[in-house]
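Here is one record:
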Amino acid sequence: MAVMTEPTAPPVPPADGGPHPDSARLADELSSVAGLLMRRLRTHSARSLLSPTQRSALSRLDREGPMTTAALARAEHVRPQSMRTTVGYLHEQGLVARTPDPGDGRQAVVSVAERGRTVLAEVRAAKRTWLTHALDTQLSPEERALVAEAVTLLGKVVEA
């Protein structure tokens, strides 16, 4: 004799306004997968010989434009002394240029040099090549369409 069970209703959000149980679980899974994806992308861009901190600072300068070392340190959430070391290395490698700050001669404005743009383009190309290959070989066209939808939705989450 078959046992009949009641269909289960979707979880009800907590009355106290706390997170929905499904959202909390999804947040944990998303955080884990995003971390793994970022590690894989870093692995495939490691050929640049820049540390993740150096790549991040160089990328921010490329995206946001020239800024002082202090402003870059604040944006990257690191101590100014640490950022001075990072910028010093990037400058020694010819990846950034320093010019005197017109408003404060004690400071320098840091910008991406042409060689820095070339290195960033190589890093981005390596990441894109790996990820394109992974998407093409691991996912069906239908799954790739779902990933495209998810990317749009995740963009909304990032903006929250």
Residues 12 and 137 are 39 Å apart (CA to CA).
